[in-house]
Amino acid sequence: MNFAFDEDQEELRRLVARFLEEKSPESEVRRLMGTDEGYDPAVWSQMADQLGLQGLTIPEAYGGSGFSYVELMVVLEEMGAALLCAPFFSTVALGANALLTSDDEGAKRELLGAIASGEATATLAISEDAGPPDLDTIALHATEGAETWTLTGTKRYVIDGLTASLILVAARSEAGLSLFAVHGDAAGLERTALATMDQTRKQADLSFTNTPARLIGTDGGARGGLEKTLQLAVVALAAEQVGGAQRCLDAAVEYAKARVQFGRPIGSFQAIKHKCANLLLDVESAKSAAYYAGWVAADDNEELGLVSSMAKSSCSEAYFHTASENIQIHGGIGFTWEHPAHLYFKRAKSSELLFGNPAYHRELMAQKLGI
Predict the structure, then answer these.
(1) CA–CA separation, 319 vs 283, rounded Å?
(2) Beta 189-193 vs 176-183: how paired, if at all?
(3) pLDDT the model gives residue 1
(4) Are 68 and 298 in contact (CB under 8 A)?
(5) Do domains 122-222 and 224-369 have the same CATH topology?
(6) Entry pTM
(7) Is beta strand 166-173 parallel, antiparallel or unpaired with respect to 122-125?
(8) 177-186 pLDDT tens trace
(9) CA atoms of 179 and 172, how far apart (whole Å)
(10) pLDDT per position as a tens digit, 2-12
């Protein structure tokens, strides 16, 4: 294990950072978060055609580049810093992973290529109630017909559910928990956009009424794959949180150096020095947790369940604290709509709750450790 990124990974970071600096400035983030779709299809295509980001961790056999989860962490960290408005997290960390963790070779070969090329956007629909996803409470019903399966029920808080062209749906059949693929234009599918605190990440409610679906993997055999998909998703989210926290820290330090009160920069006052020092400790600690989780995911190590929860709890608290203190250090201007601090604060709070808050993940860690 090595916490230092190699030269190729650092070059990937610089390449993605330059791309996002041009394609995802604050003005573009504000424009896109006010649209129903929440992203620019032209930029989405460029991400695939010019950088190959959507297929980064998809094996070459399925049309991707075959890189590891460490490279994905590098990319997501930069996307979190830029507050990129695009269905990348839902497509790659949720949709693609749900397919990759299944045992359906036919579905992988047929569906992953479109994701890697940027032709398709995907998501995973699990939650049916508020709170963290609970596989035991899934009630959306799957019925096997003479020619196809059909789904009936409702999924809530589906990330990018309004625009995804491919929806992976966790449902319950007579055999148990199963995974299904539904096309975005399928009959009987109704999608409703949700008003969310974090406007940079769109969510939707999905209603299925005898909606035709394709079984992915074996009937009743989806639990293991879904559990691993959720673990991989929270590791990916931790990388985003680290990127956002670092951007908040940078903004706070820069302002503390430039803002003058009583004839001296506010960063020279002990109270502000202490705040910035504590934020640095939070961010660096969160990086250690996220990077370790990324290495475990890349190595497909059996520790994934434990360290994914460790990373999620640590990075959630670090990001929210850093985003909050960034507003405090900026003072009055930090509370205004025109300043970007509130965008990071809202993303931090939303990400803290997504897939379970820190207390939930510490409980999972305690259960896995037997304490």
Answers:
(1) 8
(2) unpaired
(3) 54
(4) yes
(5) no
(6) 0.96
(7) parallel
(8) 999 999 999 9
(9) 8
(10) 568 999 999 99
The mean pLDDT value of the chain amounts to 95
Tens digit of each residue's pLDDT (9 = 90 or more) over 281-308: 999 999 999 999 999 999 999 999 999 9
**Amino acid, single-letter form, for residue 327:** I
CATH number for the domain whose boundaries are 224-369: 1.20.140.10
What's the distance, CA 343 to chain centroid? 16
- Cα 216 from chain centre: 22
Give the C-alpha separation, 344 to 365, whole Å: 27
What distance in Å separates the CA atoms of residue 59 and residue 44, rounded to the nearest whole number? 20
DSSP 90: I
CA 109 to CA 98: how far, in whole Å? 14
What are the residues whose beta carbons fall under 8 Å from the beta carbon of 90, sequence distance 6 or more? 121, 122, 123, 124, 159, 160, 164
Cα–Cα distance measured from residue 200 to residue 54, given in angstroms and rounded to the nearest whole number: 19
Tokens matching residue 179: 């995974």
Superfamily of domain 122-222: Butyryl-CoA Dehydrogenase, subunit A, domain 2 (2.40.110.10)
Domain 7-116 maps to which CATH number in 1.10.540.10, 3.40.430.10, 1.10.260.40, 3.40.50.1980?
Answer: 1.10.540.10
Confidence of residue 131 (pLDDT cuts 50, 70, 90): confident
Domains of the chain, by residue range, sit at 7-116, 122-222, 224-369
Chain centre distance of CA 206? 19
